[in-house]
Protein: Rho-GAP domain-containing protein
Amino acid sequence: MADAYDSAEPSPILKPGVHDAHSAAGLLKLYLRELPEPVIPFQFYDRLKATGYRIDDGQDLQPVISILETLPAPNYTLLQFLCQFLFEVTHWTNAFYSR
Structure:
């Protein structure tokens, strides 16, 4: 499956009925592991930790946003995509379990 992804085959890599959510998650994890640097590069960790932000504290997000906006463009774009993707996964998961 990873070879098919790497070769950029025009047909879908994940075929409904053949692959499941675990296959998609495994492919995403493999992609993230093989990145040359983390989505949030190491040089940003200390600044992010210094904000002391915790989601459940309800604090202002601006200090965190300011740091994230200084990420290199490819990292910022990937982080945006991942956040949107995970938001959609959560939405559909909640919709599935609320039936």
